[in-house]
Design goal:
Number of strands: 6
CATH superfamily: Beta Polymerase, domain 2
CATH topology: Beta Polymerase, domain 2
CATH class: Alpha Beta
Shape: globular
CATH architecture: 2-Layer Sandwich
Number of helices: 4
Order of helices and strands: HEEHEEEHHE
Structural class: alpha+beta
Strand content: 15-25%
Number of domains: 1
Helix content: 25-40%
Radius of gyration: 13 Å
């Protein structure tokens, strides 16, 4: 079960990504499967430019709440950017890159956090 702080971070990141038209948002509880994070947030974008906009929005939203990434892999013009907030790792991909690496399948044993828990409307983009 995720801590309140981790769930808050997931909610804020998901909301920021959704506000920038990120889609296919999936949150995975990975704490029982790995030692380096409690949750992943996976998000798709239509283009590299949109990846950058989503990354900036997530970073800005979490910074406003006092959270800064420990590490950022990829750049805002890339097709996959990873933001490591310690307990939560946010992955923002173009559709092509997300399909290629298939983290949804790779981490298929991880329980999913429901759209309602993330504060999103249930549906195809939540």
């Amino acid at each position: 079960m995720l801590s309140d702080d981790t769930l808050t971070t997931l909610r804020e990141a998901a909301s920021a990504a959704h506000d920038k038209k990120g889609f296919s948002l999936v949150a995975l509880e990975v704490g029982d499967l790995t030692s380096y994070a409690d949750a992943f947030l996976l998000c798709s974008a239509a283009s590299e430019r949109q990846v950058g906009a989503i990354v900036d929005a997530v970073r800005d939203r979490l910074r406003a709440g006092g959270r800064r990434p420990l590490q950022v892999e990829g750049s805002s013009g890339a097709d996959w950017v990873l933001l490591d907030f310690g307990d939560v790792i946010v992955h923002v991909f173009t559709e092509t890159r997300r399909d290629y690496y298939a983290l949804d399948t790779l981490w298929g044993d991880a329980p999913r956090v429901g759209a309602e828990a993330l504060g999103l409307e249930p549906g195809p983009d939540a």
